[in-house]
Amino acid sequence: MTSDLMSFSEKSFVVEDEAEGDRLAREALLDCAMGPGRRRKSSEKLRNGRLPSSGLAFVVRNGTGQVIGTVRLWDVAAGGRSLLLLGPLAVDASSEGKGIGSVLMRHAITRAKEQGHGAIILVGDAPYYQRFGFSAGKTGSLMMPGPVERDRLLGVDLKPGYLDGLAGLLVASGRRWLRRNNRDNARELQAA
Ligand SMILES: CC(C)(COP(=O)(O)OP(=O)(O)OC[C@H]1O[C@@H](n2cnc3c(N)ncnc32)[C@H](O)[C@@H]1OP(=O)(O)O)[C@@H](O)C(=O)NCCC(=O)NCCS
């Protein structure tokens, strides 16, 4: 399960696949990092009621096992083509600026590529995400299911030219979250 081990200063951090037991810690981290308004974002309409894409939900733990970073990717589609939506990405405020966000991003991109996905899009600050290859250059004809600042809708090709000419409304295409049976969801996540 563990895939990357990093050392910053004298502490160790590890990137792992997210486990079912991480849900509360992840949600608390997101509430702190992004505030209650996070649930009103247009991206949330593509995530709500869905499970993350198989094998593409990650956490960073500190030396005591506490979740201090999170990122997930989601299956979406536009113009008949499948792609991934990344987010939210968050790092605990006490651990910011140590490269944890970058490690999470690079890990997520590598794993998505290994799985054969064609491209990733996200809504975020270009000055941060451009270091991972994201730009608004190929997302101008994509529409979110809600308001979005165009210069914050960013994309990166995982396969050459995958985003070329991509146009249309982004829709959720991921596996549905089964509200009645969390055990099934847990099994599905573990199998992913
Ligand atoms: C954005 C975030 C994930 C970065 O995590 P991190 O672990 O601190 O990132 P890293 O250590 O890898 O990178 C830090 C660098 O990114 C820069 N950076 C951080 N946020 C930035 C932003 N919004 N725009 C531009 N640069 C940014 C820092 O200034 C720093 O620059 P430096 O390397 O030149 O010193 C983290 O600050 C966070 O969780 N923020 C709140 C939630 C959020 O805004 N998430 C992103 C939107 S989904």
Describe this structure in words.
With 192 residues, this protein is of the alpha+beta class. The protein has one domain: Aminopeptidase. 24% of the residues lie in helices and 29% in strands. The protein is built from five helices and eleven strands. The strands form two sheets. Strands 1, 2, 3, 4, 5, 6, 7, 9 and 11 form a nine-stranded mixed beta sheet that branches. It has a two-stranded parallel sheet with strand order 8-10. Strand 1 (2-8) and strand 2 form a beta hairpin. The N and C termini lie close together (12 Å). Bound molecules: coenzyme A.
Task: Write out key terms for the chains shown.
GNAT_dom, binds coenzyme A, globular, 192 residues, Aminopeptidase, Acyl_CoA_acyltransferase, 9-stranded mixed β-sheet, two-stranded parallel sheet, GNAT family N-acetyltransferase, alpha+beta, single chain, 5 helices, 11 strands
CATH class: Alpha Beta
Strand content: 25-35%
CATH topology: Aminopeptidase
The CA-CA distance between the termini, in Å, is 12 Å
Task: Please give the structural blueprint.
Elements: E1 2-8, E2 11-17, H1 23-34, H2 42-47, E3 57-61, E4 67-78, E5 81-86, E6 90-91, H3 100-114, E7 119-123, H4 126-129, E8 142-143, E9 153-157, E10 168-169, E11 171-172, H5 182-191
Parallel strand pairs: 5-7, 8-10
Antiparallel strand pairs: 1-2, 2-3, 3-4, 4-5, 4-6, 4-11, 7-9
The chain binds coenzyme A.
Protein name: GNAT family N-acetyltransferase
Organism: Hoeflea alexandrii
Pfam family, one: Acetyltransf_7
Summarize the structure.
This protein has helices spanning 23-34, 42-47, 100-114, 126-129, 182-191, and strands at residues 2-8, 11-17, 57-61, 67-78, 81-86, 90-91, 119-123, 142-143, 153-157, 168-169, 171-172.
